[in-house]
Amino acid sequence: MRKEYDFSAARKNPYAAQLKKQITIRLDEESITYFKTISEDVGIPYQSLINLYLRDCAASHRKLDLNWK
Hints:
Layout: H1 16-19, H2 29-42, H3 46-59
Helix pairs in contact: 2-3
InterPro entries: BrnA_antitoxin (IPR025528)
Pfam family, one: BrnA_antitoxin
Organism: Sulfuritalea hydrogenivorans sk43H
């Protein structure tokens, strides 16, 4: 392994922007705690777990039953 690397000619990954998009989302503390607890058990960052769960919901076209009573 080298002591120093020269990244002056390096370029950014052109596909990186297509992979994920940064957004702001407001979640309640209980939901965050839930995913953080699972995160510690499985060793995956909690934000990645939330993303995986939402991706699974979107792939299976899962919808919430929002009937107000």
